[in-house]
């Protein structure tokens, strides 16, 4: 080569961490070495954080937010305590494994079966860890004590959704005001809270002259613009021929139309062997007791219940049956009466 020429050397770095590769160039007996050394293995990720959750229902699956593994250049060990983890939305597992840079991870566990109780799941990646905590609700906000809801049929799960009613703001169970049989109110359609639940007999609202309310009335408030309502009437054998009647303004916005009236489009049926009434309510229209003020205020107020016509005959009383000895005595009595009647005719 000639004076003024430029020279470069190259090689492929090592396939191993922290390892040097040398390239030696010799020009006219003068040499030098070009060395590349690979970076050190980094198995310690950047810190990550799970967001804790509170006021969750009892005994329900709780899944954490998603974290992204960053700051490592080689698969790092991953393990979990008190729950399971999932990598890149895969299957949840509790078995230790490895995770790579850029992977996403979630953890999950089942919330406590007790009110106001925390459950922890701790995830460790390369010695860096964080804990996901869920804490169950203290009160579901419907105004009915947990001790009352726990006595509902189906072990306190009156709407059969496998979640205790006492932990759900949109489900409530309590005895009716007439005979103490349980009622379960379940609200859906995007409405997730029931407020100020109460029960009353017909007399508390004023007499309905043409109807009786054998199960009383159920009152509640919904902080919603619309809702789908299902009422479970436990210990009932059906409500065929009944009407669902409410007390409130029959003419929306009219303070002078407060009365009992039949709510249209109510379906009586059954779910899980329990008699039900299903209907929809909307804020500011017929069925919302708050219409007396003419307000469309995002709140639905509803007192009502299944009614039967006061003119409907009561169920017939069963005819008493005689025991065998009673039949014998009746026969002797009739025979004696017939004999006396015959003697009188001969006389």
Describe the structure.
- There is one protein chain.
- By secondary structure, the chain is mainly beta.
- It has three domains: 1-40, no CATH class; 53-136, Sandwich (Immunoglobulin-like); 146-309, no CATH class.
- It contains three helices and 22 strands.
- The protein has helices spanning 146-149, 153-156, 324-346; strands at residues 20-27, 30-37, 53-56, 61-63, 67-68, 76-81, 84-87, 97-99, 104-110, 118-125, 128-136, 171-175, 182-188, 195-200, 211-212, 217-222, 226-233, 243-249, 258-262, 267-271, 274-282, 300-309.
- Strands 14, 15, 16, 18, 19 and 22 form a six-stranded antiparallel β-sheet that branches.
- A hairpin with a 6-residue loop joins β12 and β13 (182-188).
- The termini are far apart.
- The model has no long low-confidence stretch (mean pLDDT 86).
Summarize the structure in short.
It is built from 3 helices and 22 strands. With 347 residues, it is mainly β. The strands form 5 sheets. Strands 14, 15, 16, 18, 19 and 22 form a 6-stranded antiparallel sheet that branches.
Q: How much helix is in the residues? A: under 10%
* Largest β sheet strand count, sense and barrel closure: 6 strands, antiparallel
Number of strands: 22
Number of helices: 3
| Averaged pLDDT | 86
What structural class is derived from the secondary structure elements?
mainly beta
Q: What's the order of the H and E elements? A: EEEEEEEEEEEHHEEEEEEEEEEEH
| Number of structural units classed as domains | 3
- Amino-to-carboxy terminus distance: 166 Å
How much β-strand is present in the residues? 35-45%
- Supply Rg: 38 Å
The coarse overall form would be: elongated
Q: What ranges have pLDDT less than 50 throughout 5 or more consecutive residues?
A: none
């Amino acid at each position: 080569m000639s004076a003024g020429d430029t020279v470069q050397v190259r090689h492929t770095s090592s396939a191993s961490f922290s390892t040097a590769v040398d390239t030696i160039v010799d020009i006219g007996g003068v040499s030098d070495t070009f060395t590349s050394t690979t970076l050190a293995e980094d198995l310690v990720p950047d810190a990550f954080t799970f967001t804790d959750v509170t006021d969750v229902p009892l005994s329900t699956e709780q899944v954490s937010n998603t974290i992204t593994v960053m700051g490592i250049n080689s698969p790092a060990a991953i393990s979990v305590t008190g729950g399971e983890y999932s990598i890149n939305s895969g299957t949840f597992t509790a078995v230790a494994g490895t995770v790579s840079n850029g992977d996403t991870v979630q953890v999950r566990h089942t919330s406590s079966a007790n009110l106001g109780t925390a459950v922890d799941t701790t995830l460790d990646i390369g010695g860096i860890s964080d804990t996901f905590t869920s804490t169950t609700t203290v009160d579901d906000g419907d105004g009915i004590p947990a001790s009352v809801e726990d006595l509902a049929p189906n072990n306190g799960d009156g709407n059969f959704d496998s979640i205790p009613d006492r932990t759900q703001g949109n489900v409530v169970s309590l005895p009716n005001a007439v005979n103490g049989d349980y009622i379960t109110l379940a609200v859906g359609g995007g409405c997730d809270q029931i407020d100020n639940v109460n029960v009353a007999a017909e007399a508390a609202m004023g007499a309905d002259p043409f109807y009786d309310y054998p199960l009383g009335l159920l009152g509640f408030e919904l902080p919603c613009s619309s809702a789908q309502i299902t009422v479970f009437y436990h210990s009932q054998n059906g409500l065929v021929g009944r009407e669902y009647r409410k007390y409130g303004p029959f003419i929306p916005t009219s303070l002078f139309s407060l009365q009992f009236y039949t709510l249209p489009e109510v379906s009586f049926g059954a779910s899980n062997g329990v008699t039900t009434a299903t209907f929809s309510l909307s804020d500011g229209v017929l069925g919302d007791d708050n219409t007396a003020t003419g307000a469309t205020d995002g709140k639905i107020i509803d007192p009502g219940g299944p009614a039967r016509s006061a003119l409907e005959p009561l169920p017939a009383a069963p005819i008493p049956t005689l025991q065998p000895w009673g039949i014998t005595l009746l026969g002797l009595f009739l025979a004696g009466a017939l004999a006396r009647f015959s003697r009188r005719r001969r006389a």
